[in-house]
Amino acid sequence: MQGECEPELVVPERPWPAGRVRVHAPARLHLGFLDPAGTLGRPFGSLGIVFDGPETIVEIGRAASDRFDTFAGGTAPLAKAQGHLATLRRATGCGDPVRLRLRNALPAHIGLGSGTQLALAVGRAFCANFDLNMDSMELAALLGRGARSGIGIAGFDQGGLLLDGGPRADGSPGAILTRVALPAAWRSLLVLDPRVQGLFGPAEKSTLATLPPLPRAAAAEICHEVLMRVLPGAAGGEFIPFAEGLTRMQQVLGEHFAPAQQGRAFTSPAAGRLLQWIAARTPAGIGQSSWGPAAFAFLPDQAQAQAVLAAAREAGVVDPALEITTVRPRNRGATVCDLRAAGG
């Protein structure tokens, strides 16, 4: 079972020494900014949800010499992990050799928070091995995460439905205003399209610079939907106001960001068609995480999630290239497994 310390996940392809720390960092959905340009006085502010599903899994142990391994299907995430390790060594003076294994990495630039989760997983495993007392906010600042949103950082620590108030005056990540544990029965169809990728890096910055500010009225409407429908619905276990508020929030943001997404609210046209079909037939909270293409449809329980997906397949509205899984809310943060004492 993902997120648990035992049993061992995969038999290593070559011997792995006893004594390491393993961190399971969960994915998150960024449900949108409250006021991207600060037209109401304070920029950004974010809403996000952590869920059980794909994870970043990092192991670090002390060793006689450095060695770096990956089973994540590519060298780019491992190179980023090594970069974080180098930054941590410079900042802390702990230069002793380690063996770092990247057992799994969230796909990059699709809206699941891969960058922050990788940085914090490496940071947490490194600190555990060297008995360093650094919290996630300190690690995020050191490793360059959380410039616009604190959701990924808080999600790593706590899980749940999270709202932050936007970056502070000194540029540090926004404080968490509220955390709500979502009902255990709720589910989400997570829809991924491997053919497309969301904006990131310089392209994201230049795109944001060219978009007009979100109008004050639109920002005010988003704030109202979050405060009076999404959060109360989640806190009270009332699915309909939660879903309707989330869908409306996403509609407003989708219309605003559409010019940066070829005129569409969804980066993946196939995902957009599917989710709009679902929302027209059953109560669901639909939208896109960040720049996508990761998209979602929240439903009140497993049975309804399975039924609506089966109906969509029968109706022929599920593009065969889409990767669709049913995931549950995760009301806890990352799992840190200290395997040193056990010699595991």
Rg from Cα: 20 Å
Count of beta strands: 11
* Helix residue percentage: 25-40%
- Mean pLDDT score: 92
Shape: globular
Between the first and last Cα atoms, what is the distance in angstroms? Answer: 18 Å
Report the sheet-strand fraction.
15-25%
Please trace the helix and strand order, writing H or E for each element: EEEHEHHHEEEHHHHEEHEE
What does the oligomeric state look like here?
single chain
Discrete helix count = 9
* Biggest sheet architecture: 11 strands, mixed
Structural class: alpha+beta
Low-confidence blocks of residues: 7-14
Question: Describe it for me?
Answer:
This protein has nine helices and eleven strands. The chain starts with 20 loop residues before the first strand and ends in a 6-residue tail after the last strand. The protein has helices at residues 76-92, 114-129, 136-142, 151-158, 201-210, 216-236, 239-257, 269-279, 302-315; strands at 21-35, 44-62, 67-70, 98-104, 161-164, 176-180, 187-192, 285-288, 295-299, 323-329, 335-338. The longest helix has 21 residues, at 216-236. Strands 1, 2, 3, 4, 5, 6, 7, 8, 9, 10 and 11 form an eleven-stranded mixed beta sheet that branches. The protein is of the alpha+beta class and 344 residues long. Residues 7-14 have low confidence and may be disordered.
Give a short overview:
It contains 9 helices and 11 strands. It has helices spanning 76-92, 114-129, 136-142, 151-158, 201-210, 216-236, 239-257, 269-279, 302-315; strands at residues 21-35, 44-62, 67-70, 98-104, 161-164, 176-180, 187-192, 285-288, 295-299, 323-329, 335-338.
